[in-house]
Amino acid sequence: MAKILLTGGAGYIGSHTYLALIDAGFDVVILDNFSNAKPDVPARLEDITGRPAHVYEGDVLDRAVLEQVFSDHTIDGVVHFAALKAVGESVEKPLDYMQTNVGGLLNLLSAMDHAGVRRIVFSSSATVYGDTDIQPIPEDHPRTYTSPYAFTKIAGEQILEQLPDDWAVGILRYFNPVGAHGSAMIGEDPEDIPNNLVPYIAKVATGELERLSVFGDDYDTPDGTGVRDYIHVEDLAEGHVLSLKSLLETGEGHTVNLGTGEGSTVLDVVHAYSEACGQDLAYKIAPRRDGDVAVLTARPERAKEHLGFEAKRSLADMCRSSWAWVSGQRRNDPN
Ligand code: WQD
């Protein structure tokens, strides 16, 4: 059974990928510093899978903990989630972002090379495409950064492109991951007031926040509000499994978008969430948010051609799963 290391594996996408990998028959080790993950996530993963989770609490900047992981386990591949990922915060703390996101990747790659592990899936982002009118966006679109966060993702991709041919690298560019696991036992769990749309709407639905501010209704879109390509986090997790299988089986790398190819406006999401939670959701139209683009949707075909990946779940599924998670409808049978 192949064994996979997930850096940042206790986080939102990492924990869902953990479950998808276990389902697919992999053995999995988690390294996480829990800076953006609740301490009880491993216990919840154990409840869902019925098996112990191998978890190391540590930072990818800590070479000693990385050496310990590679010494304790024969790792066949790595998925590198551990990074800082808030666009706005990166503008305030660019050095923290470069240290963690670029320095952490370099530290990980060095430890992997030393251990002879040369299969890595890299968590990248549609943010590498910058602001573009070319929609849906193809993977060969030029990269340009509009924030220090985006810079660190482009830098990470370019570092990985320098590796010799005995490495195989999967670069996965996420669009907008939302939703929660079917068990409703794990999901997006932001510490304070969310920046992102769906976790914010979720807190309006639970009554923790009063109303949503819709950042602009004067974009050139069907209802004037921003359009994004929302992808269910469980589809995204399954995309990671297919990426790893491809690297391990072929030794060849790939760079693919992980999105649905479908765009939804902010108000589409509000309406879908309202359906899911059975209540009207208060919102007001507010000024545009700095840095936002009007439309961001993926050209999804390459992931299907190269990995056999296709997102299956709908916006309604995403909202239903998010509502089940935030409203505490924990279920032990996730299917
Ligand atoms: C989605 C839409 C907003 C909040 C960000 C990062 C990106 C990636 C995913 C890391 C936009 C609107 C939002 C709100 C709103 N993260 N909105 N009111 O900005 O597309 O992407 O998260 O990789 O790098 O940039 O996601 O959820 O913040 O916004 O109207 O309170 O919802 O204007 O149109 P975004 P988002």
Mind explaining what this structure looks like?
There is one protein chain. This protein is of the alpha/beta class and 335 residues long. The chain is built from eleven helices and 14 strands. It has a seven-stranded parallel beta sheet, with helices on both faces. It has a three-stranded mixed beta sheet with strand order 12-9-14. Strands 7-10 form a two-stranded parallel ribbon. The longest helix is centred in the first third of the chain and has 22 residues, at 94-115. The chain starts with a strand and ends in a 9-residue tail after the last helix. Bound molecules: UDP-4-deoxy-4-formamido-beta-L-arabinopyranose. UDP-4-deoxy-4-formamido-beta-L-arabinopyranose binds next to helix 7 and strand 8.
Q: How many beta strands in the DSSP annotation? A: 14
Helicity, as a percent range: 25-40%
β-sheet strand percentage: 15-25%
The helix count comes to 11
Characterize the overall form.
globular
Largest sheet: 7 strands, parallel
Q: How many angstroms does the end-to-end distance come to?
A: 24 Å
- Say what oligomer this is: single chain
SSE order, one letter for each helix or strand:
EHEHEHEHHEHEEHEEEHEEHEEHH
Structural classification? alpha/beta
Overview features:
3-stranded mixed sheet, single chain, 335 residues, 7-stranded parallel sheet, alpha/beta, binds UDP-4-deoxy-4-formamido-beta-L-arabinopyranose
